[in-house]
Amino acid sequence: MTQILAQSAMAECWACDTQNDPAAYLCAACGKLLPSDSTDYFALFGLTHRLTLDVAALEKQFYRLSRKLHPDLYTRASKEKRQWSLEKSALLNDAYRALRDPIARTEYLLETEGIRLEEQSRDATDAARATGTDKQQVIPPDMLEEVFELNMQLEEVRMAAASNSQDPELMANLEVAEKNFTAQMEALQQQLESLWAAWDRALADNDAATKDAAKQAMVALLNRRSYIRNLVRDVRQALGKS
Ligand SMILES: [Zn+2]
């Protein structure tokens, strides 16, 4: 099926013969379900790869498509169409979950651009820690000193906990560190949004150099964010919050 779609730019509706965009899930003319091969999250919502999104509009479109693709509508349809509806519904859910979340949306976009973040999913990090083969993340250079000091404090807390004592001053310091890192995460979110704007403009202008620069900046930002997120997690653990 992939080959057929690759050969013809348009996909014909099985019910009314209308030529549809091969990424379309529903016929533009009759609204019937189509055997689309497309798995592109943006295309599924009729969107280009712009990163600045109207999340409220996305939600509306999600519910509209969900109703039309819902497997209950196809209980009496052919096996083939029941299968399409199941697949499309599942994909629609994945797409919505990814696109509505700023970080997941950015990661997905980078993935479609062939960039796999070596990040550092929570699962991967946990797995690495569990096996003791902690894959060291590269410390952002400007954070070296801060991280060094933090690690000393975390070590002290662990030792204090082991001897059943607690240093209130140390705990207060960690509270400050948690607030500080959380604020940094929020600042990164703002910076990410300006990178989205740069990407969107470069996409509209078809400006390859600016697109590349925006991608590299987003990768760096996400890695930094992931690093800080892990620090926040360590601090919260030390404070007994998680
Ligand atoms: Zn049709």
Q: Largest sheet, if any?
A: 2 strands, antiparallel
Query: Compounds present?
Result: zinc ion
Total separate domains: 2
Shape: elongated
Strand ordering within the main sheet: 1-2
| Structural class assignment | mainly alpha
Q: How much helicity do the residues have?
A: 55-70%
Number of strands: 2
Mean pLDDT: 87
Given as residue ranges, the uncertain stretches (5+ residues, pLDDT < 50) are 1-7
Distance between the termini: 48 Å
Please trace the helix and strand order, writing H or E for each element.
Answer: HEEHHHHHHHH
Rg calculated over all Cα atoms: 24 Å
Which strand-content bin applies to the residues?
under 5%
- Quaternary state reads single chain
The total count of helices amounts to 9
Structure description:
- Helices cover 64% and strands 2% of the residues.
- With 242 residues, the chain is an all-alpha fold.
- The protein has 2 domains: 2-100, DnaJ domain (Helix Hairpins, Orthogonal Bundle), CATH 1.10.287.110; 133-238.
- The chain has a two-stranded antiparallel ribbon with strand order 1-2.
- The longest helix is centred in the C-terminal third of the chain and has 38 residues, at 168-205.
- Mean pLDDT is 87; it is low at 1-7.
- The site of zinc ion (ZN) has 8 residues, from loops.
